[in-house]
## 1
Amino acid sequence: MTALFRAWLRYSLALCSHYSGLDGLYRRLSGAGLVILMLHRLRDDHDPFPLSVSRRQLRQMLAWLRSSGALVGLDDGLRALSPERAQKIHYALTFDDGYRDNLGLIDASLGGPVPAVVYVATGHIGGEPIWAYRLVHAVESRSRDQIDLGGLGLGHFDLSLRDDRNRLYQLLPPRLKTLEPAELEAWIDHVCEQARPRPLPHEDREMLDWGDVRRLADGGVEIGGHTCSHAILSRLDDAAASEEIGLSSASIAAELGHAPRHFAYPNGGRDDFSDRDVRLVRDAGFATATTSIEGVNRPGADPYRLLRFNVHEERFQSPSGRLSKALFFSETSGMLGWLRGLRAA
């Protein structure tokens, strides 16, 4: 089955379930739920990773959610899971890492205030971007084309060739994620040394600085913790994991004058955090923690293992490239999402 055929099949199923009323029936029968959307970047430029949405696309999704009364803040969405509240599906927005383009959340072009949580990796605030975008900058602003990654078993890349650039973006990140944090950063340094990228002007910096973070907070965006260095917690010993979590909370509290209530596990998959890390997050004073495991949060959900749906520019596009309301709702809170969950179980 070709990728194009699968895309059309998925789209056709979404259209049928959404416009036939099956999605609406499923949502009514399934009861109260909270869909937490996991976003990262808010920009129009091409992103080699599935981490960006355009302002136009986010504006459309927000319009759908506002028109149905489904858009809420994270705390309100969790309170609505109480048995005493109306049985409805709500949606909350979260943004990971702390990219400077998240300032768009307080821009009037999105149709009003956006109740969102931005989880910041405090060690990157005002500094270097997280390694994935250090890699992008090295590739796109390179002064040399030849990259040797034989030490990782990936061979040689000629970055003047589009196919080799795409191959690098496809192969290198999964390989890097298997490494210890210090080794991962060393390999990114090695790529930068070979590519010799042009310096990034301060005005084009990727990450928020603390003044930007305060602007977001003053604009009604909640600031959450995401560790200091964006380290995958399950790969750290007890002391290092505790330091990553505790210092992120302390840094935010020092800058904003109050401790953060919400946390997101870096990477956030099932193997990326453990019961130990849940305990450390709770002991650090956080009230919630989100994962990147997909699903709808139901009454009784563990507030330290909240589910989220990854959102990026292509996720809910029809095969023709247009954002699809049917795909958006049927995959996040409707029939297709339920079927996907059954298949993954």
## 2
Amino acid sequence: MFRVPDQATLSLCAVFVSLCFAATFLGLWRRNPAERFWLWWSASRFIYVVGVVGFNELPPPIPAPAGMLLFGASAAATLLTLAGLRSFAGMRPWRGWMTLLLLVPSLLYGAVAIHSPGLTTPAGALMTRMAGGIGLTIVLTTCGVVLLAGARGWARMIGMALIAHLPSYATVLTSAWMPGAQLDALATWLWMTQPVLMLAMDLLLLAMPGMMAMERLRQAASCDGLTGLYNRHWLATVEPARAATGVAVAMIDLDGFKGVNDRCGHAAGDRLLADFARHLRDWTDRHDGDAVRLGGDEFLILFAAGDDRLAASLQRHVAAAADGNPAWPRWSASIGIAPCPAGSTTLQGAMHAADEALYSVKKARRSGAACAA
């Protein structure tokens, strides 16, 4: 029958795995010193090992200063992981509030140790061990919530792994306060999740840079290099799904763009396209739409069909975009809109209808200018 490993065996496994990942992270940092997040994660795992070895090897009773250092090391391991994730995201790795959080377990342990001398357990006085454990629970919860609330993708999974530590911490603290055979057994079983969660976190950290690089490659394949909008490749990928749900298609063309290129140079034309693209993205971000650069000065917008007010809003927004740099020759934007019925298999019919509407607008504008002349 399967037997639960003792705490020493679990700790030995955790130490071995953490040392392997610490060395791996350190080696990756030495290969590319600019990627400093590897160094943060390596330091996190080395410090975690220090904490585990200290708690298991120091004979009880552990002096208060040593206990404060060990609980501080355990908190630092979690906070250094967070610092590495912040560095990976291009943010300042360490903030002042993280220093305050680092001190919480040590200060709680030290404060209780002063008022409860003499009580000994394998990790020091019972009350001091619980105080330090509560401090570590605060650190884990705070870091987990920060990642879940502010991070994206893989980093959010690290936050979930940190939060997943909490049931085992809570059970161990409860069993220390109210000893009992059933509660002690549950605490032991839940504590077995600690090495598994640490392994999962380390594997996620190891995979994150590669997965993010692949994601950037996918984005590069789907986005226009100049404007950052989606490109024709992306449109072809999503066309069947978008057509089936039914969307409105807006075709947009810049009038006078050639004059800007001819008189001000291609660099000015590129700035005009990039500025206009930002203008379109502002609208699509607010109205849950998608902006695509088809090529040259041609753009396409996908948005919810059947809303005349939304279509009118887009038309006003496109018209307002022409109020740009007064140093450029006069230019404007024409737009044509057509619906794509739900259940369609392609956007081509709607794009053709929107294109015809666009050129009707252009023709009417030229006729109006001719009449005015």
